[in-house]
Amino acid sequence: MTPQALAKAEATALRVITESDDAEKIRNIMESAKRLGSEPVREAAFRKLIHLLPEEDPGTFEHDFWQTIHAFEEVLRDERGKTVRLSRTRQKITRVGIRRTLEDFATASQATDGFRMLIERGMPELTGEAIVLRHSESFPDDVVAAARNRLLGANVDITALKKCVSWS
Known about the structure:
- By secondary structure, the chain is an all-alpha fold.
- The protein folds into 2 domains: about 1-55; about 60-165, no CATH class.
- Helix content is about 65%, strand content about 0%.
- It is built from 9 helices and no strands.
- It has helices spanning about 5-20, 25-35, 40-50, 60-80, 85-95, 100-105, 115-120, 130-135, 140-155.
- Helix 1 packs parallel to helix 3.
- The protein is elongated and about 55 Å long.
């Protein structure tokens, strides 16, 4: 594919991503972009996909949480070549709920594997700790402080995390 043809295909794909609410179509675009080496299209499709998958209202900590779960499962799916479910996390949500799960992530004595993996992959805005900071009014002060400290300890610029990860 010539550079001009690739640029045209990328522009078309980005327009389709913006206009589509079909998760399967977005996932197919993401896979094609990966195959063609188009990182901007792959990233845009990934972000749109994780915005579409949660059933909760955008802007809520519940929506942000499910974006994180879906994003992490998508990353693992891509790396392992098969569907991966965060079974233990999903079971915990069923037992104690999303709020308590986020509180436990933030206040645990050690960072979760998910936190470390998201930081390593350059996605600190998807960590449970980032969700706690973005929705600090929904959590006790000690939980917010623990989330902030964990992110600062991982050398994350927390001022950049204030933006929502939702598709705009």
